[in-house]
Amino acid sequence: MDLRPSSTQQLLGQLFAQNYTWLCARLRSRMACPHSAEDIASEAFVRILGLPDPAAIREPRAMLTTIAQRLLQESWRRRDLERAYVRWVRDLPAQVQPSPEEAHLVIDSLLHLDRVLDGLPGQGKAAFIHSQLGGMTYSDIAHRLGISVSRVQQYMSEAFRLCYQALDT
Amino acid sequence: MSEQPMAQVIDEAAQWMALLHSGHLSEEDAAAFQRWHDGDAMHAQVFRRMSQGLGEAKRPGLQRLPEEQVIAALQLPSGRRRFLRNSLGALGGLGVAALAAKTVGERIWAPGDLLTLTAERRSFVLDGGSRLTLDAQTRVSPRPPSTLYVHQGALQLECSGPSLTLETALADIEVEQGGTLLLAQRFDGEVRLTVLARQSVVRTRQGNALRVRAGQQARLIAGQAPWLGRADPAASAWLSGLYEARESTLGEVVEALRAYRHGVLRITPEAAKLKISGLFPLDDSARALRLIAAALPIRLASVGALWVSIDLA
Fold this sequence. Notes:
The complex is a heterodimer.
Chain A: H1 5-28, H2 34-49, H3 60-90, H4 100-116, H5 122-132, H6 138-145, H7 149-168
Helix pairs in contact in A: 1-2, 1-3, 2-3, 3-4, 5-6, 5-7, 6-7
Chain B: H1 6-20, H2 27-39, H3 41-57, H4 67-74, H5 79-82, H6 96-102, E1 114-115, E2 122-125, E3 131-134, E4 139-143, E5 147-158, E6 164-167, E7 171-175, E8 180-185, E9 190-197, E10 199-204, E11 209-213, E12 216-221, E13 227-230, E14 242-249, H7 250-258, E15 264-267, H8 269-272, E16 275-281, H9 285-295, E17 298-303, E18 307-312
Parallel strand pairs in B: 5-6, 15-18
Antiparallel strand pairs in B: 1-4, 2-3, 3-5, 4-5, 5-8, 6-7, 7-10, 8-9, 9-12, 10-11, 12-13, 14-16, 17-18
């Protein structure tokens, strides 16, 4: 389809007009805070805007629902990670307590890594962390996790494939 | 060169990458990798991209955490997320930081946070009697006994009790009893401070100390020396629901309006550079946008109230 930017813009505007209220209502029923529902709905439209060919979307409501669900899921996951992080740092001595901006940086980094490695089994994630953050060799990792070296290698190549794919999104 | 399918090249690259990181690489392996890498431009390209993706995955900050904690975090179960796992492989990733900032009401970090949502202004009375007024989309974490950490947004602090410290990413600001000041941190790496009563001492992360007296304004920008000058009378306009632009860029005005609008407000970089002066109602941002459109050579494309894009006419 050969749409000039202006008509794409128009089409997106139309899409927004027809579906924003609907999407907000759908989200609101699942969230405690109505303002967040509106913000998530808005963000969903912004994501649509970022798609290579928004004009090609045939089922806008299905697409919006999927994107919004993904966003909700991300915000839930963020909360899971934040909770875990808060639990850890609570027990640290005061001198090494991270500042709020450090905490945000770490949580953002965790969330990103979590998303990249999504789909890898728990042991695969552990292998990746030991190798990439801990600098361990595969045989050390195999020993630590009680699995074979070739299994570690399989996990690692799967993880690297996911790193490649993460750039595509 | 070759007509190998992309998926196969990616698999091969992943296997080579895994071998390179194994810690048991032989010289033959290294030579074989080199042959594979140099044998096809596509191989080299995919390998470079994969390295880039790996670099992105290992962001700073993670290294400072114990490995076991990172593993525990990634292995955290989440029922709600499994339920949608396969629904959307191709999307997501970018823009999450923006989302995190917008869904401030959904955040759980530090349950005692003081915050305002979109289009909301609120006053809080702190222990000790000082009054803190937050502009829309502002978040502050009180840290007893006497520090307030400002994450984002704009605020006014009237310190009527014991002295307080406002902490930001760029500086600590001491506010003495009887002091009143305005602080705005709408963009990362930039803080504006206006002292209305008494004086404040600003200690930047670079170790500069700066005394800001009543009627003065300090502007702190990451990596630059602090700037001190006369207070901008427009700085307090938001307290009465107005944004006062004096030869401001349209980008700044739009940024201020953003905190007051649900929905999407877009502006092109060209339009953002236009200069504008005037008084704009924050609580009626639709009217503010109409005023802007009347004053500048721009085109507003809007659908309903919630989708507005601004471009040069």
